[in-house]
């Protein structure tokens, strides 16, 4: 388990370097690298950006796999078992906030509340770019499946699992 956590920390550190570079250079994953005439933009380091974008995709996939491995490991552990190699898992970074919940909706029945901070929604986290563009498609593709949502409420991480059973989700979230 500690190996998985260490790998996750290494990946997060490398992702932070990439995100810092993107932020410092006002770049997003979708920033065009060509000008209007179709030539490479001379104000950008095209090679570095391309390499970082490719590495970002690899790291995000690795991070998702490691998070799934950690989740599977934790599910297999007895609830009362204590382990000397456990490290406290740091709070993840929220990427959106719940602005409203429709009464009697899936989100309401699951226990989500207005002003909950979303840390993870299925595979989406602060490390996933274009969350709001991809989330509706994810919800459509996963109708009938269970989805795990991790929120931060009163400085506590809370995990909800609910089924996207075709009823309205009833959840309005906005970016932080």
Automatic annotation (TrEMBL):
Keywords: Chaperone. Coiled coil: none annotated. One of its GO terms (cellular component) is nucleus. GO terms for biological process: proteasome regulatory particle assembly. The keyword Protein biosynthesis does not apply. Residues 2-76 form the Nas2 N-terminal domain. It comes from the Eukaryota. It holds the Pfam family Nas2_N. This is Nas2 N-terminal domain-containing protein. It comes from Wallemia mellicola (strain ATCC MYA-4683 / CBS 633.66).
